[in-house]
Here is the input.
Amino acid sequence: MTTKVDALVIGAGVAGLYQIHQLREAGLSVQGVEAGSDVGGTWYWNRYPGAKFDSESYIYQYLFDEDLYKDWSWSERFPGQPEIEQWLHYVTDRLDLRKDIRFSTRVTKADFNEDTGRWRVETDTGDSYDTQFVIGCTGMLSAPLEDRFPGQTSFKGAIVHTGKYPKDGLDLDGKRVGVIGTGATGIQVIQTIADRVGELKVFVRTPQYVLPMKSPKYGPEETAWYKSRFDELKRNLPITFTGFEYDFENTWSDLTPEERLEVLEDIHADGSLKLWLASFAEMFFDEEVSAEISQFVREKMSERLKDPKLIDILVPKAGDYGFGTHRVPLETNYLEAYLRDNVEAISVRDNPIAEIVPEGVKLQDGTVYELDVIIMAVGFDAGSGALARIDINGRDGMNLRDEWAKDIRTTLGIQKYGFPNLFMTGAPLAPSAALCNMTTCLQQQTEWITDCILYMRAHGKSVMEPTADGEDAWVAHHDETANATLISKTDSWYTGSNVEGKPRRVLSYCGGVGTYRQKCLDIAEKGYEGFELA
Here is the structure.
C-alpha cells in the first residue's frame, strides 16, 4: 500500500519529533518513520550502562514552548539515559506525536521522480510513501560500526555494540567482560561496570583526554533557578560558539602564565565541558597554546592514576594530538576504575586486536584474553553514515551513498546537490555533525527547514535543490574554516578517519553555532540564495 503525504520524516529522536510537530502545526500531512519500537533516537538505542548527558540537562531542551520546558524537572545536572528517555516520552505525549509515527519501520529506499517532483519511499515492512519532501532526522551518530573484527560471530559469549545495547540489559555480575574502545561511550561503560564484573579487560588503542564530571542533584531551589532562566537561555544558546550556555571569554595572549593557569584551574573545577568549549579558543588554532593546555590536562590525569604503566597506556602523549581536537569525554571516577584489582588496561596500540575467537579477544602477538561478554564501544560512521545506509536516488541516477563515497559534500549540512526536496539534520558540514549542544543545533535546522517549506508554498514553488555553484561555495567556506583548525590535522571520527575508505573532511562546521545560524538566516532572507526553487 502506498500512502500519499506532504512530508516524510525519518527518525523520531530530538530532531524528528520537533520536525513532525512543526510541519503538522503548519498544516502539512506528515508521516514519521522510526526504526526503533519507540521514540528517543540516540536515547532509545544507546542504553548501555552509564549512558548519560554531557550537556547540562537544562540546556539540552526544546525552547520553542515555555510551558513544555518548565513543566519538566530534571533530577540532576547530567542525568542518565532512563531519565532522558522519559523526558522524550513526555514531549511526545504532550505534543500527541505518536499517532503520526510508524515504529519498528526502517526506510530502505527513496527514489526521486523528476516528472512529478516527488519522492517514493519504501520501508522494510512493505509500506511505501509518495511524498513531496523527505527530511532525514537520522542522527549524526546512529550508524554503528558493528563488524569491526574477523571472527566476531564465532564468539561463544555475548557480544554487543553500545549503540545497539539490549533493552533488557546484560548479566555482567561476576563475569569476565572485555570493553573495546575508550571514547566517550567506552568511558561511561567502564566506570559504571567496574565494580560489578568479575574481571574487566579494557582494550585501549587511542588514549583520551578526559575531564571530571560534577553532577549535583537538583532540588526545588536548583530547579527554580534554571527554569527562571528560560528567556535568557532561549536568547543566548543559539548565538554562542557551541550552543552551550557558556562561551569563550579569555584571550591567551592577554594573560600572564599565572593568570592562564588560574583560569584553567577554575574552569577544570567546574566539572563540565567548559574547559573544552569556553576556555581559550586559541587551543584550536595555535599549536603552542594547544600543547600547554594539553599538558595541563595530562598532569591532572596523571595525578589521579599515579601508576607509570597506567599513565603510559591511558594518558595521551605529547605529540599524539591536542586536547579538544578529539571529542572530549566527561567522566566520574573513570581513571580510578583502573586502580581496582579486577580491572586491567591492555594497550592495543602497537599490538592490535587480530580477531575475535570463540574464547575471547586475540591480539596480533597471539595472546588470547578469555571473556564471557564483549562490549564494543568502537564508534559510528558519523554524520553521513545513517543516510548513506539508505538507498537514496536523486536526479539523473545520482545515488547519495555513491556521492558520499567519492566526497563528503552538502550545502549547509541541510541539502545536497542532485537531491531535490531532500532535507537533512545532523548531516556533514553543519555544527550539528559534532560541535554543538545537539538540541540547540537541531532546533535551528528543523526550524530553517520548516520556514523554507512554508516559503516554497507561499511562493508557488514545489521543488528546491542547491545549485552546483551554491554547494561549491559552501564546501569551500567550510573547508577554509575547518582547515585553519588543528581538528583537521588530527585523525578521529571528526574527520571520518575511523571508517576505512571514507573521504577525509572535517565533518562539522567549525565557524561556530551563532555564525552558522546567521549565515542560514542570511541565505533565507535573500530568497534562498545558492538554491534553485522551481
Observations:
- The mean pLDDT is 97.
- Residues 184-376 form one domain.
